[in-house]
Amino acid sequence: MEALSPTVGHVGHAFVLRELFGDAESAQFEMNRRAARQSEHLAEVLDFARAHPELYVNVDFDPRLAGGFPSLGGDATLAERCAALEASSRLRLTEGEVRSSAAVAQRALAQLPRVWQAARDGLISIAHVKAVLAQMPLIESVPDASGGFDELMRDIAVSSTVSGTRRQARLVADRLTACTRTQRHAAAFARRAVYVEDIADGMSWVYAMVTTDRAHAFDRELSLTAKQMPAVQLDGRTTGQVRADLFADMLIGGDVTRVKSKVLVTVPLDRLVPAARASVRVPATSTEVAGLDLNSDCLIPGIGTIDDATARQMLLDAGAFTRVITEPVTGVILDMDRRSRKATRAQREWLALVHGTCARDGCDRLAIDGDIDHHCAYHGRGRGVTDIANLDPLCDPDHALKDTTLLRHQRREDGSIEVDFPSGHHTTNPFAGLRERVRALLERIAEPPENPPF
């Protein structure tokens, strides 16, 4: 029997790889379907227990005999607690996890039927559903937007990661809410806190709720300090371990040589003083400002919007700023001052403003922390120039894959990067057309909220 030719062998290996990917996807879809069904079943269990308390509660019990004990609630509430306890024992979950899982199904069925159907079909996970549900308190202030929000977030979730879905849900809800961003920030700011959660083996988590600009400035400082640490000081530690050690040293006031970091923030001129609003642009209707742009939002690129008061204070603290020139209606960046001494620094900041995150589909690593890639290689016969039109922000891992593997990176007209794999699979941009869809959603709202936050 003759040996297979290299070409035939390569085709066979590619087929096997596709089959393996298909099996993994099928397993993921089935796991998502099972998780959704379990949440629904737990909701049904708790509802049934409330409807039939006699299954758990002694009908002959005299409440007066329970003197000295805290109130257990009515029969229905007591029966529900018993059912949650039994479910936790059967499924080896905590009672809180049982109640949380049931609540997700109940709320999603009532408020996000399309998103929940996607979970039932296995297209998204329960974590995706929770990410969208978290924004429903804001959407409830604009009832006419709930159906469109449900449809839009369903389409985003089925092709996005959980973190990407969470970020876009927050941004879209922010555009539709009737409550101003400054009001919401003030309420959230009052809840700032620090707490410690002890885990096993002498380790603990440290949590701190602080303003977004400070959190990301500190995160970038950790990353940059770890990245520039000499190899002799790493001592075999991973980047994550180095960041954790630096964090602990900074908390206790250790001697740490910090790398100065920067967080980019864009502030529309008419957000600085009320008097400037009329002179900068004519107030636009809801259909003209739909979407997320630099004209109408104070932004931390790649992270999201921030309230006006925080943005103004950050601008005052900075002491200097760079003008970003945008198209007055769409907010698309047209030009930027090039008065920085180092051109590469200006180009990096430009790309961070335009893209926010790594340009590769689905990647949410910040552009300002990544590499700057020449789309047409700088070296070689084609020799691409170091010009904005030929530069893309790619995170370190994606940049390495582009230059050393068979993956092919294709740039789209909107600047996003599609990755084509040898197996034939290719990535898609889960947020393509988001601006237009938000605009259409705003157009369907019968009465826009008074004093909208944009």
Structure, described:
With 454 residues, the protein is mainly α. The chain contains 17 helices and 10 strands. The chain folds into 3 domains: 13-59 and 73-179, no CATH class; 193-251, no CATH class; 269-429, no CATH class. This is DUF222 domain-containing protein.
Quote the distance from N terminus to C terminus.
Answer: 73 Å
| Succession of helices and strands | HHHHHHHHHEEHHHHEEHEEHEEHEEH
Radius of gyration: 26 Å
Side-by-side strand order of the widest sheet: 1-2
Give the DSSP E fraction (strand runs of 2 or more residues).
5-15%
Structural class from helices and strands? mainly alpha
Mean pLDDT: 77
Report low-confidence residues grouped into runs of 5 or more: 68-73, 276-294, 332-343
**Number of helices, counting only DSSP H or I runs of 4 residues or more:** 17
**Strand elements, count:** 10
Helix content: 40-55%
* Biggest sheet features: 2 strands, antiparallel
Write out key terms for the chains shown:
two-stranded antiparallel sheet, two-stranded antiparallel ribbon, 454 residues, mainly alpha, 17 helices, DUF222
List the helices and strands and how they pair.
Elements: H1 6-51, H2 75-91, H3 95-111, H4 113-120, H5 126-133, H6 136-139, H7 146-157, H8 162-176, H9 181-189, E1 193-198, E2 204-209, H10 212-227, H11 231-234, H12 239-251, H13 274-280, E3 299-300, E4 304-305, H14 308-318, E5 324-326, E6 333-336, H15 343-355, E7 371-374, E8 391-394, H16 396-404, E9 408-411, E10 417-420, H17 434-444
Antiparallel strand pairs: 1-2, 3-4, 5-6, 7-8, 9-10
Helix pairs in contact: 1-2, 1-3, 2-3, 3-4, 3-5, 4-7, 5-8, 7-8, 10-12
